[in-house]
Amino acid sequence: MAQVDTLIVGQGLAGSILAWMLMQRGQRVVVVDAALYPSASRCAAGIVNPLSGPRLAKTAGFETRWRVAARVYGDLSLQLGKPFWNEIPLLRVLRSDNERQMLEQRRSEANYRPYIDTIMGSGRTGLPIDDPFGSVALKNAGYVDTAALLGVLRAYLKTHDSLVETSFVYEHLKTSGSDAWDWHGISATQVIFCEGYGVSANPWFHTLPLQPVAGEVLTLETGAELPRQIINKGHWLLPLNDRACRVGATYAWGWQRLEPTGRAREELLAALSALWRIDLTPRVVAHCIGARVGTTDKSPLLGRHPRRPALLVFNGFGSKGASSIPYFAERMVQHLLDAKPLPAEADISRCAAL
């Protein structure tokens, strides 16, 4: 039987980065992933946005998470030989007088000023966009090319004989009576579940306070030139080059099947049309859907099962995975290998449901 330190279930952004970090520390890792079901990581734009929502709120700890994300994605680019991280401006188009007033308040707060670059009145961006309440250019923004990163990391795992491409059946995971868990000829000291939305069927962790939301994204080719910046007006536009972009995302709760819908397609095309004052003549070249897994208290889920300490979860990053996963993956590795405590706000010991 093959002996490994860690068996990871799921090769989305969370499982991939965690596996890579553990392998950098000399750990023997195997990742199980079939890549058959719609994945939030593979559909996601990977946007890192310092101020979000109608209140232009900054995520707690964003400064640290930004620094760690930039370093980790930079290290991945150097080791794997392909750039994944793109730091580009983000233009937030204000949608109401309330948002404009909130922006003025944020500009007066010391911990928000580093992220606010230029506030512009209506029609002052130099772009043919509809912005009756004005816009603001935000700093410390960008995106990670998640699809490219996951593809290269998948190849990396294969090269190191660390990927098993099959569906994970929970009933096939057995405890050997010691501290190890056995799965199809692999004996692992610990098993970490990073299966995203799949955690809702996990027999050990399905009672965690999950809040899954389906989101759809379009990839478009356009007949007009696009600016080299992310634009957010409720929906976001992410330029891929001067004639192609991604537009997203929708939010849907209580869906029946994870399949792209005509309603979401029309919503996103309508949002694009409402943003631009010129006809971009967009052509849809791809349409994807994924289920983001957030939590009811807006904090991720990390840690050990209280009665099965060799079983762990690393999940619940919602729409902020691109910025937060590198930071929490580092903390998870430090917990596993250096016996350091997990961040209290993310530790599943806070959850009474288990």
Report on the architecture of this protein.
The chain is built from 7 helices and 21 strands. With 354 residues, it is an alpha+beta fold. α1 packs across α5 (146-159) and α3 crosses α7 (321-338). The model has no long low-confidence stretch (mean pLDDT 93). The protein folds into 2 domains: 2-44 and 147-209 and 296-350, FAD/NAD(P)-binding domain (3-Layer(bba) Sandwich); 89-139 and 211-295, D-Amino Acid Oxidase, Chain A, domain 2 (2-Layer Sandwich), CATH 3.30.9.10. The strands form 4 sheets. Strands 1, 2, 11, 12, 13, 14, 20 and 21 form an 8-stranded mixed beta sheet that branches. It has an 8-stranded mixed beta sheet with strand order 8-9-7-16-17-18-15-19. The chain has a 3-stranded antiparallel beta sheet with strand order 3-10-6. The longest helix has 19 residues, at 62-80.
Write the layout of secondary structure elements.
Layout: E1 2-9, H1 13-24, E2 29-32, H2 40-43, E3 47-48, E4 51-52, E5 57-58, H3 62-80, E6 85-86, E7 90-93, H4 97-107, E8 116-120, E9 135-138, E10 142-144, H5 146-159, E11 163-164, E12 174-175, E13 181-183, E14 186-193, E15 210-221, E16 230-233, E17 235-241, E18 244-248, H6 262-275, E19 283-295, E20 301-304, E21 311-315, H7 321-338
Parallel strand pairs: 1-2, 1-14, 2-11, 7-16, 14-21
Antiparallel strand pairs: 3-10, 4-5, 6-10, 7-9, 8-9, 12-13, 13-14, 15-18, 15-19, 16-17, 17-18, 20-21
Helix pairs in contact: 1-5, 1-7, 3-7
